[in-house]
Amino acid sequence: MRVALIDYGAGNLRSAHRALEATGAAPVVVSEPEGLRDAQAIVVPGVGAFPPAMAALSAAGLVEPLRAAAGSGIPLIGICLGMQLLFDRSEEGSGATGLGLLAGEVRRLPSGVKVPHMGWNTLRPRAEDPILLGLPELAHFYFVHSYVAAPADASVVVAEAFYGAWFPAIVRSGAVWGLQFHPEKSSRLGAQILHNLLAILTARRAG
Description:
Strand order of the largest sheet: 2-1-3-4-14-13-12-9
Helix content: 25-40%
Strand content: 25-35%
Number of helices: 5
Distance between the termini: 15 Å
Number of strands: 14
């Protein structure tokens, strides 16, 4: 499966590329709209801050093509900052508009906790979803973030984690997924999540 791995200067491309390859996918680094033409799935990775990330996507001419691709049913997966970019807007910095593929905002972690939230944390499932297949009851994943999504529709939350408050760790709406943690840095269970995603996408194509 050809997976377009979006390069907008804010992603940890190398580790994401390796992790996708290990699942059997064929990741291709894409930095301009033409690269999305034959994509069978799209991954938006991300490390950094929301406003400059959206500015970089806009400068690359990728904002509308990403919206159009998701609108046409091409699966789109956001990882960490990439998940936050899926939402309508963020309060980070002076605020910025996101891709608007999921309704809701991105807000700073609650006061009283050290930010960024950096390290391993446990997922609590909120809904049955094939992305969780094969995971143990106490599945740990690696997080690095200071902001979290606040979906307008709570039903999109597949799993959550706790850091000062419960926050969405996995969201899904149709063919749009968001992972607040880094599966590519989460060892065996991160690989399991990516394997499950690839199986879901393969089944969608076959169906």
